């Protein structure tokens, strides 16, 4: 968002909001080609370990997060049924039908 003088919040909800458009480069429902560079590296970087550490860090502040929900998500991740941060990002992108994800070949 080079034309904006503010930064996107650090949350998956903020990412989803940005993809809906109305500010930044996306105006609304126009087709957008999102080029995800370093896709395979990001799959690793945003994988199981980062996700587990993210949930554990949230649990350090139970007064500002839904600890029961976070514990459930952590348990799902640890038993192999939960999503990694990478998978959550892919899911968010796929929910926006006007966003076409392009993954360049390495």
Keywords:
two-stranded parallel ribbon, 5 helices, globular, mainly alpha, 106 residues
What order do the helices and strands come in, and which of them pair?
Layout: H1 12-20, E1 32-35, H2 39-45, H3 48-59, H4 67-78, H5 85-95, E2 99-102
Parallel strand pairs: 1-2
Explain what this protein looks like in three dimensions:
A two-stranded parallel sheet has the order 1-2. The mean pLDDT is 92. With 106 residues, it is mainly alpha-helical. It has helices at 12-20, 39-45, 48-59, 67-78, 85-95, and strands spanning 32-35, 99-102. The protein contains 5 helices and 2 strands.
* Total strand segments: 2
Largest sheet: 2 strands, parallel
Decide which structural class fits the backbone: mainly alpha
| Tally of DSSP helical segments | 5
Query: What series of H and E elements makes up the topology?
Result: HEHHHHE
What spatial form do the alpha-carbon principal axes imply? Answer: globular
The largest beta-sheet arranges its strands as 1-2
Mean pLDDT, rounded to whole units? Answer: 92
Cα end-to-end separation: 25 Å
| Proportion of helical residues | 40-55%
Approximately how much beta-strand content do the residues carry? 5-15%
- Return residue spans where pLDDT drops below 50 for at least 5 consecutive residues: none
Specify Rg, calculated over alpha carbons. 16 Å
């Amino acid at each position: 968002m080079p034309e904006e003088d503010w930064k996107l919040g650090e949350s998956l909800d903020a990412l989803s909001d940005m993809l809906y458009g109305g500010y930044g480069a996306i105006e609304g429902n126009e087709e957008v080609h999102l080029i995800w560079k370093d896709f395979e590296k990001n799959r690793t970087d945003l994988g199981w370990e980062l996700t587990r550490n993210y949930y554990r860090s949230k649990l350090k502040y139970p007064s500002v997060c839904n600890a029961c929900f976070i514990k459930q998500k952590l348990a799902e991740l640890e038993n192999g049924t939960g999503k990694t941060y990478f998978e959550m990002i892919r899911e968010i992108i796929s929910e926006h039908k006007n966003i076409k994800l392009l993954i360049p070949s390495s």
